[in-house]
Amino acid sequence: MTAPADTTRLGYFLGPHGVQGGIKLYVLGDAGQILSLPRVYVEGRGWLRVRRADPLAPGVALQLAGITDREGAELLRGANVYAADADLPGLEEGSFYYHDLRGLPLLDSAGTVLGEVSDVIDAGPQDLLVVQHAGTVSGPRQSLLPLQAPYVDVQTEAGRPVRVVLTDDAPAGLLDDDAEE
Question: Once rounded to an integer, what is the mean pLDDT over residues 54-61?
Answer without folding.
Answer: 91
